[in-house]
Structure formats: structure tokens, C-alpha cells
Amino acid sequence: MLNNANIDIELISYLATDKFLVALQRFVGRRGLPHTVYTDNATTLRAANRELISLWNILTSTKVQQFYAINDIKWKFIVSRAAWWGGWWERLIGLTKQCLRKSLDQALLDE
């Protein structure tokens, strides 16, 4: 059996629900809809999840509802008060940040 994993990094200026949703939209535009999103319990991410669910519930077009039913995105949060569960991706984020700091040095980035 062949297993694939992908890590996609979106740089945003600060973590807010609207910034996260724009980053998610960019991701979907490049990579397509993810089947599962693993995140910690950050307030911003929980708010984004609630916003997406309410948006999908509002959509009334049968074709749109079928599309989301077929491409259901599962959002999995780590257990509350168990930050060590996200240790494997936090380590990858740390390594990536270290590489970015070394390669970008003092460069300013915009969105």
C-alpha cells in the first residue's frame, strides 16, 4: 500500500479567522479540497470551522449540496488540554520556521 502525506504552509501576517479562511481558499485553489484537516484547538481555527459549517448549511442549491456531500472535509482537533498530541506537526512547523528565518533573514513579506 502506498501512503502519501502532504504539508502545505501558508504564511499569513497574523492568525485571525478571516486570514485563515483566505489561506484555506488559496490552498484549495492550488491543491484541491482536503479530505481531512488536523489542527490544534486554537480559537481562530474553531471559529473558522464553525463558519465553514454554517456556510455549507446555508447553501440551498442541490448541486452544491451534492458537491459538499461527496467532498466532505473532516476537521479533526486534538484533544483539549493535550497539546502534546500535535507534537509531530509542531516539530515540522518549527523546522520550517527555522529554514525560513535562515533563508529570508530580515526580508519583509507581504500577503
Automatic annotation (TrEMBL):
InterPro entries: RNaseH-like_sf, RNaseH_sf
A single MF term (Gene Ontology): nucleic acid binding
Domain of life, per lineage: Eukaryota
Protein name: Integrase catalytic domain-containing protein
Source organism of the structure: Araneus ventricosus
